[in-house]
Amino acid sequence: MIQLKTLLNCIDNSGASIVECVNVLKKKRPATIGDRIVVVVQKQRSAGSEATTAAALASKVRRGDIRHAVVVRVKKELQRPDGSLVRFGDNACVLVNKSGDPIGTRMNGVVGQELRNKKWSKILSLAPIHV
Amino acid sequence: MAALPAMRPLGCLRSLSLSNPSSTVDSFSTAYSKRPERVPLPPNMPEQFLSQIPLRFRPDPDREPLKIYPAPPSARKACKDPVGAITESQLAVLDPTGERKAMFDYRRNPRSVKTGDIVRVTFKNGDPFNGIVMSIKLRGIETSFLMRNELTRVAVEMSVKVFSPNVNSVEIVQRSEKKRRRARLYFLRDKKHDRRSVENIVASYVRQKKAFLGGGNRRR
Amino acid sequence: MSPRLGGLLQLSPVWGAPLITPRIPVRSFGIRSLNPPKPSRFNIGPGLPVLESTSTAALRRKANSLPLRTGAIGIKKGMTAIYDPESGKRIPCTVLQLDRVEVISHKTRERHGYYAVQVGAGWKHPNNVPKSMLGHFSVNGVSPKRHIFEFRVKDEAGLIPVGQSIEAGWFQEGQFVDARSNTKGKGFAGVMKRHGFGGQDRSHGVSLTHRSMGSSGPGQGGGSRVYPGKKMAGNMGNTQNTVQNLKILKVDSENGIVVVSGAVSGPKGCVVRIQDAIKKPWPEVPQAEATEPATA
């Protein structure tokens, strides 16, 4: 149930940490796993112990950037064809460029299996686990 | 009876003086009384009398009584609970031994899966899922159970239909330490009660099981 | 004024008449064609094309959308799910039961103007059946039925003999049907529930009309009237609804059970009419099966 103003975690190493949904693409309903959305980067990922300048250099996006993203986890339960339901603890997404390739090179966190049916195999291969 | 105006208020007492039980008391009866038999028309009635009777009461020697045909055998009587019959036929295919039904029938089977247990579910296609059982819903063919786990620090809940052909097996990894007082452990979602990840417990169980099975293979 | 006077004079040749009964002009309302169609006396005949507004033309137009064979009356018994063993897919389904479904009579082109099969289901105590209906059942040699419906068919080939019972095996697993039934009655419902209106504000000066429909139309510019068909509050539900293209998942002839995919309108126990789907190819009925019950 990702719609206008929803805040999502960004789980790739593109540099964004929290993004806000501003549009759901190709759909009149709230987005779910595997849907493409437009987001605004709200918070950049701070590198912690490393110097902030280095982190800023490493990050590919900045605060206020408008980017495309793919939803990979949702709190709203999803029903699978065999009747089982899956529900995650948070809403999360991965930033992609206009052609649909992920901006980050690594991902940390579990993603939903529905990405396979929606032809996001590149994201699936980056993810450590999929459920 | 013309009464004096001063006597008029006492007029209400007049009925007492007039009371005659046999004529004023009306009696009604609800007792069953037989329907009176129809009196047949006198034979050889002249034509002028017959023509005065409504058409439907006039005697008609040619008219036969309506023949009422008996109903064929009823499917409704043969099968009172069609939804149950469909469920039974489904269960006979999906769970011929009744093993799965017993495994989750926590009301009757003491050895069944119970809420609070840690289970491991393997699927025909896809990775196994481990988790602590939060609730079991007994709904015939729709019987399902809800598991909760934490993967990469993200809570994941999965509800699985017990009789789904996609489910390969369900193993109980660990029983809950103490008796649960609730049927549904939705409070596990609260931060205070969250059990976090059960991956370590399941991993050690899988290691033990592998070692055990491996030993068995060597003996053979 | 002068022409009207002249007309009046012309129309009343008898001088005494207008004095006794004053002439009241007949007013006509509504829209009238300026040049109404004039049927020609000579445009009728066997060799000429069929006129569009005749029953023959109507039947010809409907020929492609009328099923070849009759349907059946079922009772909705509830919903459950069926698993596809190969793909592991779960399909929600509705369970219908056919109870003593029999053909009562036929409607024919010659007598009634169209072809249809009158089908009855269930059983009703003869004491509770009107005499006219009892006579109808008696003449056709069937027991008194609780539910009676007609199923239109394309031509006389679809008129199966009177008295033949329609079992669950009439439908084949895998074929598609249309299910027609009455929806659940919701009683007198407001516009928000019935038509999905937005309602009005909770506050901002709105008082007591938070769920009402607001205006029912324009004022002087729109004719100062409410247009026909204006969506308003009223009775909702308990209207006929057809769900098209439901797949038959399972058939149990012994118990009269037909399982169709998806949902069917109405509560449990409601009467559902199922007939071959008009938007799918007609099911291939084996010839032997089709002719065998006819002879029996």
Automatic annotation (TrEMBL), chain A:
GO terms for cellular component: mitochondrial large ribosomal subunit. It comes from the Eukaryota. Pfam families: Ribosomal_L14. One of its GO terms (biological process) is translation. InterPro entries: Ribosomal_uL14 (IPR000218), Ribosomal_uL14_bac-type (IPR005745), Ribosomal_uL14_CS (IPR019972), Ribosomal_uL14_sf (IPR036853). GO terms for molecular function: large ribosomal subunit rRNA binding; structural constituent of ribosome. Keywords: Ribonucleoprotein, Ribosomal protein. HAMAP family: Ribosomal_uL14. Belongs to the universal ribosomal protein uL14 family. Component of the mitochondrial ribosome (mitoribosome), a dedicated translation machinery responsible for the synthesis of mitochondrial genome-encoded proteins, including at least some of the essential transmembrane subunits of the mitochondrial respiratory chain. The mitoribosomes are attached to the mitochondrial inner membrane and translation products are cotranslationally integrated into the membrane. This is Large ribosomal subunit protein uL14m. The lineage of its organism: Eukaryota, Fungi, Dikarya, Ascomycota, Pezizomycotina.
Automatic annotation (TrEMBL), chain B:
Coiled coil: none annotated. Pfam families: Ribosomal_L19. Keywords: Ribonucleoprotein, Ribosomal protein. GO terms for biological process: translation. Residues 19-32 have a biased composition (Polar residues). GO terms for molecular function: structural constituent of ribosome. It comes from the Eukaryota. One of its GO terms (cellular component) is mitochondrial large ribosomal subunit. Residues 19-45 are annotated as: Disordered. Belongs to the bacterial ribosomal protein bL19 family. This is KOW domain-containing protein. It comes from Penicillium desertorum.
UniProtKB/TrEMBL annotation, chain C:
One of its GO terms (molecular function) is structural constituent of ribosome. Its main location: mitochondrion. Keywords: Mitochondrion, Ribonucleoprotein, Ribosomal protein, Transit peptide. Pfam families: Ribosomal_L3. It comes from the Eukaryota. The keyword RNA-binding does not apply. GO terms for cellular component: mitochondrial large ribosomal subunit. It is found in: Mitochondrion. NCBIfam families: L3_bact. Belongs to the universal ribosomal protein uL3 family. This is Large ribosomal subunit protein uL3m. It comes from Penicillium desertorum.
